[in-house]
Structures are given as structure tokens and as C-alpha cells.
Amino acid sequence: MDATDLALMRATQAGLPLVPEPYQALAEQLGISAEQVMARLVAMQAAGSIRRIGAVPNHYKLGYRYNGMTVWNVPDAHVDALGAQIGQLPFVSHCYHRPRHLPDWPYNLFAMVHGKSLAEVDGQIAQINAVLGELNLGGEVLYSTRILKKTGFRSG
Amino acid sequence: MDNIDRQIINHLQDGFPVCAAPYQHAAQQLGISEAELLARLQALLADGTLSRFGPLYHAERVGGALTLAAVKVPPERYDEVTDIINAFPEVAHNYQRNHVLNMWFVLATETPAQLQQALADIEQQTGLPVYNMPKINEYFVGLRLEA
Question: Is 0.90 topped by the overall pTM?
């Protein structure tokens, strides 16, 4: 990441210009050529600095009304292996190891699940339970009950 | 949202070309005109069906910092604390959740130092402890939601 990459990131933070030649539009804004903009975007994708270029739908608008943050307490020695397995389930959008905050918060494995009905999400949670098996020391599902703020910014 | 919108959403979740006229390229694959694709994307963004269209950056790999944080907000202070936390430009999303830890937000900053400062400022302005839960390891980020 050099200063030009950073400028390109800032210029696209709100999204790609909706004009026939968006990379040319960015190039004019940054004072470089469209070829340079495209080369940098390709390089940042190859390096993993850009996860992908594309559309991010609003779950709720597509009918995915049940968005559960499932959280689990699993032994630290097993969290990486279990996280890798849970992350591969087809309905999990994000899966992370995060710190516990004892005694209030004993959970160290987070997996976001999405469904169009509560029954669908219940089935997903049952599948996670099945993967964790005896290593599941407890879990909870937190549903969002209200969106308090949502900006266009998306990253991970 | 009609079938063409659904196809656009499904197709463009998989990626977008880097070439001189990428909308034309994508429109051809969808069997519509470039002008129609641009108009529909504009409408899908305006009505919130799409929350974003463009490059998605990996915060840590671009030098930035990102965390998930939660607060136990007393019910009688919920609106007040919402206003305080939402006023921080570093707060990208904020959700009410059905738990004692009833407010969960994502903080995103360009540097790790700014993140720590924002967390400290939120604690100071709300008078409430912030449970900071930065990721220790990432197993999966993605998922295509079928429209």
C-alpha cells in the first residue's frame, strides 16, 4: 500500500462510480491513468487487500430476516480446527475467533448465520452444534432486534 | 425487485471485471444494456437493496483496524447511548441485540491508534465499559446470499 493505493481506497470507500468508464473516472480524480487504476486494483486483489469487487446486498431486503450471531465457548486448543469447520458451512457468512471477557462473556468462537425463517436458522444452529459435539461448552444466539446504524462502509 | 434485479444481485456478488467498460461487460453477460444495468444498480443502491457496490477492502491488510465491541446499556439510557455511539464516524454499523450485552457495533479506522482512541472516547462519553472483541483469527468471510 503506497500513497496512491490509499488514495484509490479512499476514492472507492463509498463505492465504484456508476458511469460507463468507472476506472477512467477514478483516474481523473486521482491524476493517474485508467491503466494504472486498473493495475492497482488487480494487484490489490491479488495481495488480498481487496477481498473482491462487487455488490453487497442488504440481508433484510433479500428476505433474510433472521440474522443470528451464534457464539460458542470451545476449548482454546480446538478453536482453530473447529472454526475452520464451522466457517465452511454453506450458511455461515463470517466466522472468527474473538477474546472472552470472563465472567460475563465466556464465548470465543463467533459464526454469523442467515435465514429467511426462524426454523431455517434453528436448523443451521443444530448443524453447528453437531460439528462442535462434545467440545461445545455452551453457546448462545444473539439476533439483531434493531439496526441502530449502518453506513456503506464494508470491510472485514 | 424483479427477476432482472435478482440476476444482477446474484451475478455481481461474485465479482466485477476490471476493464475499460466493466458495466458493459457485465451487462452483456446479463443480457441487458449497459444503461439499464447502471440505472438498476442506482435504484438498488438508492432503495437500500444493495448496501454497497465496489471494492471490499481487507481492513488489516490495508493498514487499518477493525473491531467488534459491545456495551451493556441500561434500558432507560438506550436512546441516549445510541446517539453518543452513532455520532462517532468510526462506528460503521451498530445493532441492538437480544442479550444483556444489548448494543453491538463495528469500529473501523485507518490506524490501530485511532481505534484505541475511539474505544476510550466511547467509554468516557457513555460512562459504560466497552467489551472489545477484536478478531484473533479469521476462518471465513464471505457468503453469497441468493436474491
Answer: no
